[in-house]
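The methods section describes the discrete structure representation at length, but only in general terms. An entry of this sort, consisting of the sequence and the corresponding backbone structure tokens, reads as follows.
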Amino acid sequence: MTRTMKIDFVSDVSCPWCIIGLKALEAALANIGDELKAEIHFQPFELNPHMPAEGQDINEHLAEKYGVNEEQMAATREMIRARGAELGFEFGKNKRSRIYNTFDAHRLLHWAGIEGRQSALKHALFSAYFTLGLSPGAHEVLLRVAGEVGLDTARAQQILDSDEFTAEVREEQNYYREQGINAVPAVIINERHLIQGGQPITAFEQALRQIAAAGERA
């Protein structure tokens, strides 16, 4: 019997561990196959909600926020690159030089959910930033990516030129923070089970099978 499962994937498009976690989750679901029907809903989280539009040098940002030095940054970048490669995702070498504000990307993702194109847009935004080094806060980038995944660019422009979906995104962000989510990715299954971090495929698969075996429904 096929089980139905609701998965809320709380993440930011500027978070490398979020795309690693997403690719691993999707691979786990593919391994399980027809035994499980999962509905993934992408929920907003801003790692740097006060980041100005022009962004900040990534090395400067990481040193200020986490106190890491260049050697530690290089080691972490290589770890992330290798994990991504294992999952079929390319982190472009020396492409990502700045951290940007991602709030407008989350507004477009909210709209894309209404249009049934949220997953496609999410993946495209990850690729735009991590593979190509483009700003996920720049409207020209957001419009281009929206068009590439089949969304109406005129409607996307209208949203970006207004404050549409601002209240909805703020409300969703506040809800997950109130639930104790302060790091991403956070994968919430059936609104009850939390898996945090860019876990390997096996960890996701084991957790999903255990929850499904318990007979839970979304």
In short: The CA atoms of residues 4 and 170 lie 28 Å apart. The first strand starts at residue 3 and ends at 11. The chain has one domain: 3-213.
